[in-house]
Amino acid sequence: MSAITLRLKPLSGVMSMSDSQAPEAFAIYQGSANGFGPPVGKLAIGERGRIDLLEAADGFEPALRRVIAAVNSLDELRIKAPPPPDADPGALYRRTVTRDDADLTFAIGAFMEQKYDLRLVGV
Length: 123
Known about the structure:
By secondary structure, the chain is of the alpha+beta class. The chain has helices spanning 61-72, 104-116; strands at residues 8-10, 24-32, 35-45, 51-57, 76-81, 93-98, 118-122. The strands form two sheets. The protein has a five-stranded antiparallel beta sheet with strand order 1-4-3-2-7. The chain has a two-stranded antiparallel ribbon with strand order 5-6. A hairpin with a 5-residue loop joins strand 3 (35-45) and strand 4. It starts with 7 loop residues before the first strand and ends with a strand.
């Protein structure tokens, strides 16, 4: 199997984050049938979960911008959650996470993986 190398390019016009919370940077990996391949971009999550695209591999910028705009437009995220101990077997449960929840960064990562098959890995 041959390796694929994607070149990430910095994007111009990235908005600066608020001084009140330092942004967290994450590499973005796209899912495939064989797991996750090379990174397709890099993003920052800042105050109240605001996501900014920092870098994108050739051909991925438009799609990543659409995904980020969609996630940024949500007031709350619904992510899969483990069922309570008394739950019916096979039942599906979700948890709602708002923009002020302490685990918002985790929820953004889970949401992007569950809905868009994009994995975020801290850099």
